[in-house]
Amino acid sequence: MTSLPDPSTPLDEATAYQAFADMLDGKPSEEAIEHFLTALTEREETSIEIAAAASAMRERLIAIDAPARAIDVCGTGGDGQHTLNVSTAVSIVVASLGVPVAKHGNRAASSKAGASDTLEALGIDLDHAGEIAERSLADLGICFLHAANHHPAMKRITPIRKRIGKRTIFNLMGPISNPARVTRQLIGIARPDYVPVYTEALRQLGAEGAMVVSGEEGLDELSISGSSRIGSFGSVDVGERVTPDDAGLDSFPIEDIRGGDPAFNAAALTRLFDGEEGGYRNAVLLNAAGALIVAGRAGGWEHGVVQAANAIDDGAAKDLLARWVAYR
């Protein structure tokens, strides 16, 4: 069995890359992997280690072709807030405005309904979605990349992560290991203090433009309840913080966007696209504005909110969802 380096001190790029390449290729023992990941979490990962892990994952994923200006809207999860599926709704809204969205996601790990669970409840066949992803993205401007279909190297890592039972560096990998190899992203992380580290990792990975966001309450998306911390670079420059008021939106308590099981979240998303107002709508509008800024389609927060609201109110988002569910 291949040995892993001592993770008690920061690893250089080459050492970190080789460690993750070996783990994904199944070379170290499961016990060695478990010890390495646990110790790395306790010490806290550096941007170099995050970028190296993502590079190793990217080399082993099953990729799809995507338009040059496609984006992804994705959160790392793990915030413990059990909110409705904001990034999923945002992806549909933004795609209905003509921005290609290669949505990467998975089943719930710590929440009751991940993107995969809710889309499945809405009628999306996850296995079929992987088979038609390129066509769907080209024809409809949106696709769903169910992580299990595109990351075969994670099959050995998944049970080890479950055995560890708490966050590891692999919780950070989903958004930066998109099979469409997007270079523009809106990414939510559940750790406001970690925004600069994660932003620097994205920069090292060569992203063209990105916005990394975290609600101050530890939310892995822009908060509709208060201030959110932001990291951005490249084609995106929006400052370090934003509030709903900055986008011309009313704030709502986090309780107003609490989610439930997949059926509950799917029903809420359906009502949203039918015109229901409230906290969920405003959370989607705020995050959609961020996604439109990332895509180069909005000049600021209020401009983005107006476009997103129009996409919901004129039925474009609802129509796209219906066409996506029916697409074969």
Automatic annotation (TrEMBL):
Mg(2+) 1 binds at S87, E221. Its cofactor is Mg(2+). 5-phospho-alpha-D-ribose 1-diphosphate binds at residues 75, 78-79, 83, 85-88, 103-111, 115. Binds 2 magnesium ions per monomer. The keyword Magnesium applies. It comes from the Bacteria. Its EC number is 2.4.2.18. One of its GO terms (molecular function) is magnesium ion binding. Anthranilate 1 binds at G75, N106. One of its GO terms (biological process) is L-tryptophan biosynthetic process. Mg(2+) 2 binds at D220, E221. Residues 69-317 form the Glycosyl transferase family domain. Coiled coil: none annotated. Anthranilate 2 binds at R161. Keywords: Amino-acid biosynthesis, Aromatic amino acid biosynthesis, Glycosyltransferase, Magnesium, Metal-binding, Transferase, Tryptophan biosynthesis. InterPro entries: Anthranilate_Pribosyl_Tfrase, Glycosyl_Trfase_fam3, Glycosyl_Trfase_fam3_N_dom, Glycosyl_Trfase_fam3_N_dom_sf, Nuc_phospho_transferase. Residues 10-60 form the Glycosyl transferase family 3 N-terminal domain. One of its GO terms (cellular component) is cytosol. Pathway: Amino-acid biosynthesis; L-tryptophan biosynthesis; L-tryptophan from chorismate: step 2/5. It catalyses: N-(5-phospho-beta-D-ribosyl)anthranilate + diphosphate = 5-phospho-alpha-D-ribose 1-diphosphate + anthranilate. Catalyzes the transfer of the phosphoribosyl group of 5-phosphorylribose-1-pyrophosphate (PRPP) to anthranilate to yield N-(5'-phosphoribosyl)-anthranilate (PRA). Homodimer. In the C-terminal section; belongs to the anthranilate phosphoribosyltransferase family. This is Anthranilate phosphoribosyltransferase. It comes from Parasphingopyxis lamellibrachiae. The gene is trpD.
